[in-house]
Design goal:
Order of helices and strands: HHHEEHHHH
Helix content: 40-55%
Largest sheet: 2 strands, antiparallel
Strand content: under 5%
CATH superfamily of one domain: Winged helix-like DNA-binding domain superfamily/Winged helix DNA-binding domain
CATH class of one domain: Mainly Alpha
CATH architecture of one domain: Orthogonal Bundle
Number of helices: 7
CATH topology of one domain: Arc Repressor Mutant, subunit A
Shape: globular
Length: 183
């Protein structure tokens, strides 16, 4: 969890989400860090399974790719180990703030997007009545849908003409959690 809770590592994961594979030198140009620093952070991300070598090259010219199409932090999976729970909660807070800031920035500039970008950039809010098992199933189905496009991240030659990187940030929570607790 500490591997991701670093601004450079989050930036590297974001860069790899937009274009992969990337060498440390290519990543450095995208995230504004030195190739040496990016190589260090890529190796750290690899150590914890967030990125992997894409094959070919050595040293700073070794290409990297994300090991997963995205990630989530499940704080409840770490119950019983207080230190891990604290770390998971801290990382979750960092990620939520990072994602919310990205959404705020898009909201602030969306009005100046070309019309075709406005149509595909959106936000929605929906309320459904689901059991916890149904929510879990829904999330699994949504992930499966997204994975249909995974190969386009890995292999740019598979992207249709005009394809651009799109990001889906999903927050799922019980609406009643926002109500004041009743006695």
């Amino acid at each position: 969890m500490r591997a991701v809770a670093h601004p450079t590592r989050l930036a590297l994961l974001e860069a790899l989400g937009r274009r992969e594979p990337l060498t440390a030198t290519e990543a450095a140009d995208m995230v504004g860090e030195s190739p040496t620093n990016c190589a260090f952070h890529l190796r750290t991300l690899a150590k914890y399974g967030f990125v992997e070598e894409a094959g070919g090259g050595t040293g700073r010219s070794r290409p990297w790719r994300r090991a997963h199409i995205g990630f989530s932090i499940e704080e409840s999976e770490h119950r019983g180990d207080p230190d891990t729970t604290i770390a998971a909660t801290a990382l979750s807070t960092v990620l939520w703030e990072y994602w919310l800031e990205r959404i705020r920035k898009i909201g602030a500039i969306r009005s100046v997007f070309p019309e075709h970008w406005k149509k595909i950039t959106g936000a929605s809010e929906s309320i459904f009545y689901l059991t916890p098992d149904e929510v879990e199933s829904f999330q699994e189905e949504l992930t499966a849908l997204l994975f249909r496009y995974r190969e386009r991240v890995e292999d740019p030659s598979l992207r249709p003409e005009g394809a651009i990187p799109m990001e889906l940030i999903q927050f799922t929570f019980p609406v009643d959690a926002l109500r004041p607790l009743e006695d």
